[in-house]
Amino acid sequence: MGEFNDKAKGAVKETIGEAKQRSADPETRAEGRKQEVEGKGDRLKGEVKGVVNRA
Q1: 22 phi and psi, to 5 degrees?
Q2: CA atoms within 13 A on the CB side of 30
Q3: What is the mean pLDDT of each run of 10 residues along the chain (55 residues)?
Q4: Which of 13, 20, 27, 32 has the fewest CB neighbours in a 10 Å radius?
Q5: Are 45 and 8 in contact (CB under 8 A)?
């Protein structure tokens, strides 16, 4: 995937993860935390790809 795709995918995962953390169910909240972290990783990967492509 390209830089933009990774950033977009990460943003979506973060948003969904944040929403799941508002759940009353502890398992759903834990899943939301995991998903938010994965989203941050995807966004970071996209940013790194952008820096590498510009270098």
Answers
A1: -90, 0
A2: 3
A3: 90 97 96 97 94 89
A4: 27
A5: no
